[in-house]
Request: fold
Amino acid sequence: MSLLSTDITKLKRLSIKEVILSTPERIVKPIKRDIPPTAEEIAYSKLVEKYPLFLEVVEALDLVSMSTGLRVRRVETKPDKEKLLAFAKRIVKAEAIHSKEELIEIIKQGSKVSIERAERGFILMLEAGAFERLGDSYYLTGSTPF
Reply:
């Protein structure tokens, strides 16, 4: 029963004035990390790339993802570099010089696509390093242009 015998009026009262706040730590900005695209986002992006009118349908009907309930984001879809190089080696004659138009026609015939898709394929193959430039002409990388 010692607490009952203590006189609280004689004890020192606490005051907020005596409280000292510590200095705030520096604000840490969140790290922005790249989230790899999901299979749904890749499929959606390829579909929109192939059929641009599909994007208008999605906008008009306000379509969303079944899994998240949010609009599916478009991601950049680039083919694999090794696949591009293998395709270029398969359809383009080695040890020969070709003009840009010839290569686009070879890609068009070899993959049975439209001229626009063949031009896009040529640009992707050029970026992947499948062709080397020699003046206004191109030749297959790793071959001799004779």
Observations:
- DSSP finds five helices and three strands in the chain.
- The mean pLDDT is 83.
